Every structure is written in C-alpha cells, then in structure tokens.
Amino acid sequence: MKLRQLPEDFKVEEISNLEIKKEKSNFKIYLLEKKSAETFALLDHLAKTNKIPRREFCIAGLKDKHAITKQYVCVPATYDLRIVEGNNFKLTFLGYTDKKMHLGDLWGNKFQIIIRALRKGELDGVKQKASDLEQIGVPNYFDSQRFGSVVQGTFIAKALMQRKYEQAVKIYLTECSRHELQSIKQDKRLMVERWDKLTTLPIKSPRFRTIIDEYKKTKSWLAAYQKIPANLRELYVSAYQSYLWNECVKELLKRFVDRKKLYIIPYSIGSLLFYKKITLQELEKIPKTFKTISELGNYNEIEKEIISRVLQGEGISLQDFAIKEETGNFFVAHERSVIVKPSHFFCSDPLVDEINDRGKKNFFKFIVSFALPKGSYATIVTKRLFNK
User: Fold this and answer.
1) Do residues 31 and 91 make contact, with C-beta atoms less than 8 angstroms apart?
2) Residues 221/310, Cβ–Cβ less than 8 Å
3) What would the pLDDT profile of 256-300 be if each residue is shown by its tens digit?
4) How far apart are alpha carbons 145 and 377 in whole angstroms?
5) Active site residues
6) Do residues 70 and 29 touch, judged by C-beta distance below 8 A?
7) Which SS3 state, helix, strand or coil, does residue 111 take?
8) Which residue segments constitute the domains of the chain, with CATH numbers given?
C-alpha cells in the first residue's frame, strides 16, 4: 500500500465557518491553494514578497505539505497582496470579514485520497469497512503527523516532568532524524561521542551553540533547555500529551469493547487499537469524550481510573505535569471526542493503479473522500480501511 505517492493523491480542503461578505470591512479573506508546500514557509514567502509583516497573516489551521490543499488566509484590509501566484501556490481574493481569523476558526476539512499499490488480497473487505464507517466511526486518535518532534520514541516532555533537564537537552542535541541536514547530523554525532566534553566541542550550528553557551555560562541544564526555540518546546509538550491521550483511548476500548473485536495497527511511536464488527449498542457504551491530561484537570471517575492506569505504566504521576513554574510550558485539559464519524463518505470500486501496475493488473487503487471535524486525522480513517 502506498499513500501520498503523488501530491495529487492527497487533497485537503478547509471547511470554513467564516462569514465572508462583498462589502469592504476590517479584514481581507483569500483562498490559498498550494501544492507540496509547507504552510508557515509559504506564509513567510508571501510576507517577504508582499512586504507585509508576517504577524499580519492569519490562518485557521496547518495543512499537509505533501498534498494539494485549499485553506483560508486573512490579512488586514489596509494591505494589498500584489504577489498572489507562484510555482506551487495561488491566492484568490474572496471578500471581507469583520473579525480577525484565528487558529481553530474552521469546522473541519474535506479529503480526497488515492490509496495505491494494493494487491488483490488487500482488496477484500474494504468496501464492507467503508460502508460501516459513517455509522460506527473510528477512534479519534492523533496520528503519526502529530509526533514529528519525537525521535526514536523518546519524549522530551517526559524528561522535563521527571526533572531530568540534562536528559531533555541531550535528546534535543543528539537524537537524529532522517530529514536533517548532514551538517546537523555531524554536530549531533560529535556530541553523542563526547557528551562529557560538550562545552569544548567545535559545534557549527548557531542554535546548538546558543544552548551549549547558556549551559557553559550558568551550569544549569534547565536554563540551557529554555534556549530551545519556544515553538519547539510547546510541540514537545503537546506531543507527549497527545500520546498519553491515545493510550487512554486504547484503555477505554479495552474496557468497553469485547477484546475479540479489537485489533492492533502500528504507527510511528507505537500501536493503536481499532474495533471491528461492533454493534451500535456497544458503541453507545464508549464515553463520547475524554479529557487530555493536566494536573489541573477536573476528571470523572472513569477518566480518573483510565488516567491512573496509563500514568502508572509511564512511571509518572499527575503531579509531575506541573512544570510551568520551572519551564514556562504547561499542559491544558480539554475534551476531545473519543470516536469520530466521517461524513459524506465515498469509496470507489477497486481500480487498476496506472502508476504501479505497468499493464500487469497486479496493483490496484481506491479513491476515498470524506469530511472530518477539525483536529481529526484522515490517515486514521485509511488505517481503519486498509489495516496499515
């Protein structure tokens, strides 16, 4: 099975709840269509080429890089966007809105996805699963895209919670990911080999040097940690909180669903539990929402029981989440739907995969389309359909 073999195989379109009008008002709204472009990098480019401060560009949500996407962009009406088209993007003016747009100002997203390189044996049961999806839904897990900041399953936020600040800094400075520049990898390998001589090493990366110099000056690993860019430190906290929420949902399913109906699908940092052949009566037993974990959260009895079990397995306690005073970062408890049901779901019949088949009729593809509320992952739906 191949997902996103081409950018055209993964299309995402924002479903907005904006009130857009023709009459001139405080903010201009544009539709941004992009292909194989990272959202923030493209906004940086638009700000620079149009000579508009970057902070004036507002979006409702991030969109996948390896895809063709449509989303809304908001700028104050006092600015004119002159550069509205490039090799991989196009901006179309739609109208005006009274209020500034913020992250989260959308209902959800529409998806059209082509899943390729499927063999005949992988086609069985897909149409049946597809017919069930709108009724029984899927667990609303955070998928692998949420965990790009996690390298080799190691959570920096967990080290913070355990007050292991040197470990947190060491993970950041030494754990390599495959997409990093070779020069960054060389710096990291050197630090792994000679960690005890860290302050004397000829490290080239300015951002690494800033952290090392702070430790050299203060002899405080916590002070050194706080030199990591703020947006990354926030990502580390949200990634670990999302992982723990996934683990809580797995425990919920084990409690409320017959275990014979549960099966495992791997993802980037572990495994997820899905259900099959579940009845609507069984589905009703599963709590509708489950809160993310924070030391300040107000939890019901089921949540307390599940959270206690998950944290025990992690070797941490609820009190360990209180890291704001030391680090400036914090965990927020908010409700998230346990089950999500795709709407307007469509699944094609199996089609010959024109890219991978090469005339032998050994490889097939499916085209699926559906809508999901904001914060839900389309790839969780494809995992349910294709068990991968």
Assistant:
1) yes
2) no
3) 999 999 999 999 999 999 999 898 899 999 999 999 999 999 999
4) 9
5) 64
6) no
7) strand
8) 18-104 (3.30.70.3160), 156-232 (no CATH)
